[in-house]
Input
Amino acid sequence: MSKFRRLTEAQERKALAEGKLSGLAGEGKPLPNRPGDALIDAADAVGYRIMAEAGALPQEIGLKAQLDQARANWQAATDEAEKKRLMAKLADLQMRYEIARDARRKFLK
Output
């Protein structure tokens, strides 16, 4: 079993103990397939979706989504002052993402 899968299961157990996994939308029904599910192991995809529904995703995943959105906003900006402001936000998000990723990697060693 991979270290990341053990971490995922530990977070699921914690969310279950805190009562965050009961009363979720679609509870007891099979999860529908999503386009990104083909890129990762089926068990991990289900685990990520359960964790997302419970609000227990690792910080790194949320930061990655924010980082992607910030990159898109920066590329779409045309005003130079706006680009500078967006670049500062992008740099901050990139640093926070790298810190979270390094923390997870050190935890899994």
